[in-house]
C-alpha cells in the first residue's frame, strides 16, 4: 500500500515530488535484496516478522515504479481533465479516479510477490546462529 501511495503521488504531482520519490526508489532498488535479508536474518535471528518486513520493504519500491508509470500515462486522459475542470482536489483525483484504474496492475504484481515471499522465507531460515534447530517459520514441522 505504501508503494501505491508513493507511485500515485510521484506520477500525478510530478516535478520536485516525482524527482525526490524517484531518486529514493532508485537508491532502495540498488540495494541487493538477499544480501540485506541474510545480513538482517543473521544479525536479528530470522523470524516471521523479519521476513514480512524485508519482503515488504523491497517490494514497495517496484510497486511504486509500476504505479507511477501507469499514473503518468493516465493523468492526461479526458476523465481526469474533466475532474480537474469540476474543481476536484489532487488527492481526490488520485484516490477516486486514478487508483481504481491502476489496481489491476497492483493485484497482478502482488500475486507475483507470493513466490518471492516463499523463497525469502525459506532462505532466511537457514542462517541461524548457535546450532539452533532449523524449522520453518510458517507451516507445520
Layout: helices, strands, pairs:
Blueprint lengths: L1 H12 L1 H15 L3 H12 L3 H27 L3 H8 L4 H36 L16
Helix pairs in contact: 1-2, 1-4, 1-6, 2-4, 3-4, 3-6, 4-6, 5-6
Describe what this molecule looks like in 3D.
With 141 residues, the chain is mainly alpha-helical. It is 78% helix and 0% strand. The chain is built from six helices and no strands. The chain starts with a helix and ends in a 16-residue tail after the last helix.
Structural class assignment: mainly alpha
> What series of H and E elements makes up the topology?
HHHHHH
Unreliable stretches covering 5 or more consecutive residues: none
Our count of helices gives: 6
Shape: elongated
Separation, N- and C-terminal Cα atoms: 32 Å
**Main sheet properties:** none
β-sheet strand percentage:
under 5%
- Helicity, as a percent range: over 70%
The number of E-state strands comes to 0
> How much is the average pLDDT?
83
Rounded to the nearest angstrom, the radius of gyration is 19 Å
Jot down its keywords.
mainly alpha, 141 residues, 6 helices, elongated
Please outline what is shown here.
It contains 6 helices and no strands. It is mostly helical and 141 residues long.
